[in-house]
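[recover] target loaded
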C-alpha cells in the first residue's frame, strides 16, 4: 500500500500539483513505519550535515569545471553549461551524495551499476576535492533488454562521463556483483555503498543484505530506483527493523543514514567469531 502511495506522490510531483502532496506525505509518514519521505533539510539532519555546509557543497558541485565540461560534451546545447546546472538542480541525490562525501570525508566507496558514469563522476568530484579516497565500481557492458538496462553500452563506454583527471581515484571492476561483492567487502572497509545495478527483487535484496552484513554501524547505504521497479528497499528495511528515507521530489532514491545492528547481531557476527572474542 505504501509503495503504491509513494508512486502516486511521485507522479503528482512530476505534474507539479504540489499542494496535493502535503496531506498525502503526512498520511504516508504516519502509516509507513520504516521508510519516510523527507524534505532536503530534514534529510540533511538525518545525515548530520549542516544546511550552510550543504549550500557550499552544492555550489561547488554546480561550479565544478571538470564536470561542466564533460557533462556538457554529451548535450546538444553546451552554451554556458545550462544543461549541466539544470541536471544537478533536478537530481537532489547528486547533491546529497556529493555533500555526504565532502562533509564526512569518506574514503572507500563502493557502487554497483556504472553505465555512462554520471553518479560516479559526482562521487569522484567529491573525493578529488577532499584530496583523499577511492571509488570502486562494479558493472558489466550494457545489453538492451537485459538486467533492467535500456540500451547497449560497450565496455569502453562504461564511465565515459568520468573526467580523466578523476580516474586515478577510480577502479572499475568488470564482473558479476553476486560473485565479487563478498570478496570486496571482506578485503576492504567501505564507508558508503550505493546500489544502482540490476533492479530485480532477488538482485537488489542480495546487494542490500551483503552491504548490511559487511558494513559497520556508522556506514551508509544508498539505493537508486527504489520505487519504479519494485518495493525491495522498503521490504528490506521492514525485515531488518531499520529506518530508511527518500527525499522529495526524488522519491526513487533512498538511503539508510546509519546501518545500525542490534547487540545480538554484533555478538553473533562472523567478525566477532574470527576475532575470537
Amino acid at each position: 500500500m505504501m509503495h503504491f502511495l509513494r508512486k502516486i506522490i511521485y507522479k503528482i510531483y512530476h505534474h507539479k500539483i504540489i499542494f496535493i502532496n502535503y496531506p498525502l506525505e503526512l498520511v504516508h509518514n504516519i502509516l509507513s513505519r520504516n521508510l519516510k519521505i523527507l524534505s532536503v533539510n530534514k534529510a540533511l539532519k538525518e545525515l548530520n550535515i549542516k544546511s550552510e555546509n550543504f549550500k557550499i557543497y552544492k555550489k561547488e558541485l554546480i561550479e565544478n569545471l571538470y564536470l561542466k565540461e564533460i557533462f556538457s560534451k554529451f548535450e546538444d546545447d553546451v552554451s554556458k553549461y545550462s544543461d549541466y546546472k539544470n541536471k544537478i538542480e533536478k537530481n537532489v541525490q547528486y547533491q546529497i551524495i556529493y555533500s555526504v562525501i565532502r562533509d564526512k570525508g569518506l574514503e572507500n566507496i563502493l557502487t554497483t551499476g556504472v553505465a555512462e558514469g554520471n553518479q560516479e563522476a559526482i562521487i569522484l568530484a567529491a573525493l578529488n576535492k577532499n584530496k583523499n579516497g577511492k571509488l570502486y565500481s562494479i558493472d558489466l557492458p550494457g545489453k538492451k533488454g537485459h538486467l533492467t538496462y535500456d540500451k547497449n553500452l560497450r565496455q569502453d563506454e562504461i564511465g565515459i562521463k568520468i573526467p580523466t583527471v578523476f580516474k586515478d581515484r577510480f577502479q572499475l571492476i568488470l564482473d558479476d556483483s553476486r560473485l565479487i561483492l563478498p570478496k570486496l567487502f571482506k578485503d576492504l572497509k567501505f564507508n558508503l555503498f550505493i546500489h544502482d545495478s540490476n533492479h530485480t527483487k532477488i538482485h537488489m535484496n542480495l546487494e542490500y543484505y551483503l552491504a548490511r552484513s559487511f558494513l559497520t554501524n556508522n556506514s551508509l547505504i544508498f539505493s537508486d530506483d527504489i520505487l519504479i521497479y519494485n518495493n525491495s528497499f522498503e521490504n528490506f528495511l521492514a525485515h531488518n527493523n531499520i529506518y530508511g528515507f527518500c527525499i522529495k521530489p526524488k522519491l526513487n532514491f533512498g538511503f539508510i543514514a546509519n546501518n545500525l545492528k542490534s547487540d545480538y547481531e554484533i555478538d553473533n557476527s562472523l567478525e566477532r567469531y574470527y576475532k575470537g572474542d
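[recover] notes: The longest helix spans residues 201-214.
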